[in-house]
């Protein structure tokens, strides 16, 4: 669908437009409304999103998933107290195809110049029961990954027994389940049947069918999208 291609090709579109020294024209197409913010406040020059933090009481399994399976590298574990630790993981950013290998100390040294890191904080004696967004809608929705080949990624994750919430090229159906919870449209959102049905019908506008959704060991949803729009797709 053209909307889906627009979504996927947005960056290409903007880059192509800039070749002709003009900004994307118009307000979008009614679904995608382009931002028209002017320049950011001068005081924010150099600001960047470096990491996001997940609370866990399941650190070893989380490190196994993000590290051994998804391929993020350990920057460090900081043992702040015997019970409290802070762990940083992230992709080596010297090259995504593996030739840009960086050691843990090298990554740690570059930490404040890296983007997309995950910080896992664990209070290992906590009496709390932490609710993942797939189990109970909350303010955290999902982590978004880009992969070069989503079909290969799906096969790879299945081989490693990663729970798949939604397969590639499968539309979302129904109003309950882990994906619905993580998107805030599940049972905790209330009945609202007509509004939910409208959303299910509209899902191809954002290419939801084409996304692969899996769960990490704590039940956080990981959304996986292919870098370039799939060419052989039915959409
Ligand atoms: C928390 O970590 C400390 C130090 O490693 C360990 O002695 C303790 O058994 C751990 N507690 C739990 C509940 O895992
Ligand atoms: C791997 O990444 C490096 C660094 O970005 C690049 O120079 C090289 O051409 C890439 N190799 C392949 C096979 O894509």
If you had to describe this structure to a student in words, what would you say it looks like?
The chain has 235 residues and is of the alpha/beta class. It folds into two domains: 6-26 and 131-226, no CATH class; 58-123, no CATH class. It is 25% helix and 20% strand. The chain is built from seven helices and eight strands, in the order H-H-E-H-E-E-H-E-E-H-E-H-H-E-E. It has helices spanning 2-8, 10-19, 59-69, 104-109, 150-159, 178-182, 193-202, and strands spanning 51-56, 73-79, 84-90, 117-123, 142-147, 164-166, 212-215, 221-226. It has a four-stranded mixed sheet. The protein is globular, with a radius of gyration of 20 Å. Residues 9-25 have low confidence and may be disordered. Residues 82-83, 124-125 line the site of one 2-acetamido-2-deoxy-beta-D-glucopyranose. The site of one 2-acetamido-2-deoxy-beta-D-glucopyranose (NAG) has 4 residues, from loops.
Tally of strands: 8
Order of helices and strands: HHEHEEHEEHEHHEE
Share of residues in strands: 15-25%
Q: Which structural category fits the helices and strands?
A: alpha/beta
How does the overall form come out from the CA principal axes?
Answer: globular
Helix content: 25-40%
Ends apart, CA distance between termini: 5 Å
């Amino acid at each position: 669908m053209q909307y889906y291609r627009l979504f996927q090709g947005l960056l290409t579109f903007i880059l192509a437009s800039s070749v002709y020294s003009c900004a994307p024209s118009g307000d979008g197409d009614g679904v995608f409304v382009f931002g028209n913010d002017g320049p950011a406040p001068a005081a924010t020059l150099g600001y960047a999103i470096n990491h996001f933090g997940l609370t866990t009481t399941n650190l070893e399994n989380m490190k196994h998933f993000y590290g051994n399976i998804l391929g993020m590298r350990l920057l460090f574990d900081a043992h702040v107290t015997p019970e409290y630790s802070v762990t940083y993981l992230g992709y080596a950013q010297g090259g995504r195809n593996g030739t840009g290998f960086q050691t843990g100390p090298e990554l740690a040294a570059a930490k404040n110049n890296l983007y997309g890191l995950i910080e896992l904080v664990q209070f290992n004696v906590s009496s709390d029961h932490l609710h993942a967004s797939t189990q109970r809608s909350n303010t955290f929705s999902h982590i978004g990954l880009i992969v070069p080949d989503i079909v290969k990624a799906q096969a790879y994750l299945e081989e490693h027994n990663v729970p798949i919430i939604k397969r590639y090229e499968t539309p979302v159906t129904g109003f309950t389940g882990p994906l619905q919870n993580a998107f805030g449209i599940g049972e905790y959102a209330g009945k609202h049947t007509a509004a939910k049905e409208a959303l299910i019908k509209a899902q191809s506008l954002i290419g939801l069918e084409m996304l692969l959704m899996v769960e990490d060991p704590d039940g956080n949803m990981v959304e996986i999208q292919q870098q370039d729009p799939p060419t052989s797709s039915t959409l």
